[in-house]
């Protein structure tokens, strides 16, 4: 269902297709809706906070075909400026049929739409890295990065998030074991996908995860961490993973849940993502 936030008649409006690769906890769904709706509300908040304000229009498709979803057609993206791939319990390095079909769609869309922007969160970050030839897999330590986390910014990250002086970090919520182990390059992407002089920048890192996000001006922005999680969502998503046996270190899970109420920079990161649609070469 289309959702629109437009602060003023003259404000630019960004049209974003959200590809939902999972479903939220039932309690979160009853309170906040699908991940697509949660993404819309978060980016509408960022649009209000942006100077000048930016309008946001979204639609969403649930793409996990084995759970009743579908892979959209290429034509369904014609009226959109970009897409965002959400987080998921699935492995982005897996060969599930819907993942392979989605990768094929993304490759075709990337090649045919030079003006299109690609955004990814957690699973989406990893899948887009895979699309461009990066290496994805479990962390070498085999442990999870969970809860409120300090992410050190590279010079590219500091420009993107407009930090100043010694303010060279952001705080976001994490919930992953898999990671981008080797960042993609123009060479790994191949000449059909990127000119060979294209730099795919890493904008942040932690001790657990050296590649916290990827960036290509006017084209790509990914983040391993989550932008729109609130306290209840963090606790519930941890609970889901514990109940499914994905997280076995219960002490680690409990410590992470205790950080769920801490403030994070999800809106600032979303504002930086919105600038990707407004000729962001110089960080305007």
Automatic annotation (TrEMBL):
Q: Which GO terms describe its cellular component?
A: cytosol; nucleus
Pfam families with a match to the protein in the record: GATase
Source taxon at top rank: Eukaryota
Query: Which range is the signal sequence, renumbered to this chain?
Result: none
Q: SUPFAM superfamilies annotated for this entry?
A: Class I glutamine amidotransferase-like
Q: Which InterPro entries match?
A: ChyE-like, Class_I_gatase-like, GATASE
Domain Glutamine amidotransferase: residue ranges? 110-226
Cite the PANTHER family for this sequence.
GLUTAMINE AMIDOTRANSFERASE DOMAIN-CONTAINING PROTEIN, GLUTAMINE AMIDOTRANSFERASE YLR126C-RELATED
The protein in question is named: Glutamine amidotransferase domain-containing protein
Task: List the source organism.
Answer: Emericella nidulans (strain FGSC A4 / ATCC 38163 / CBS 112.46 / NRRL 194 / M139) (Aspergillus nidulans)
